Amino acid sequence: MNYIKACVTSIDSFEAITIVGFRAGTEALTMMSLELDSALQIGSEVILSIKATTVSLAREKSVMLSISNQLPVRIKSIDKGELLCSVKLSFEGTLIESIITKNSALRMGLKPEDDIAALVKASDLAIAEIL
């Protein structure tokens, strides 16, 4: 599991869906939620969680994707297995892991120190803890 410290910047609700905005360092993040802790408010400091298997990778950010969370990251290491790769990424001083197929890592030509984008759908972001 990946963890990122962030601050709540917005909370917008309609019927049973809530969209929460965050600031993590210099980056804006968005989370879609069906349930939200009533203690959460604008200005709350939180720890966000992201499963490693839901972190996709791209060579660069793109305005033409529906994925709203596109984090600029640097590859720190790549552990290649028979079928999968664990790619360790640095985001604003925080280590994030992405699990992708070995074929994807080879096709993309990923290597340590590459600057790429980590992509996380708003529905894959969760609040692990309110600080």
A few lines on this structure:
The protein is mostly beta strands and about 130 residues long.
Which runs of at least 5 residues are low in confidence (pLDDT < 50)? none
Beta strand %: over 45%
How many helices? The count is: 1
Largest sheet: 5 strands, antiparallel
Structural class: mainly beta
- How many strand units? 10
Task: Provide the spatial order of strands within the biggest beta sheet.
Answer: 3-2-1-4-10
How would you state the average pLDDT, rounded? 96
Rg to the nearest angstrom?
15 Å
Note the gap between the termini.
18 Å
Helices and strands, in order, run as EEEEEEEEHEE
Helix coverage percent: under 10%
Shape from CA axes?
elongated
Could you explain how this protein is built, in words?
The chain is mainly β and 131 residues long. Helices cover 5% and strands 58% of the residues. It is built from one helix and ten strands. The protein has one helix spanning 102-108, and strands at residues 2-14, 17-24, 27-33, 45-50, 56-58, 69-80, 84-91, 94-101, 115-120, 126-130. It has a five-stranded antiparallel sheet with strand order 3-2-1-4-10, with no helix packed on it. A five-stranded antiparallel sheet has the order 5-9-6-7-8. A hairpin with a 3-residue loop joins strand 6 (69-80) and strand 7 (84-91). The longest helix has 7 residues, at 102-108. The protein is elongated. The model has no long low-confidence stretch (mean pLDDT 96).
Summary tags:
131 residues; five-stranded antiparallel sheet; 1 helix; 58% strand; elongated
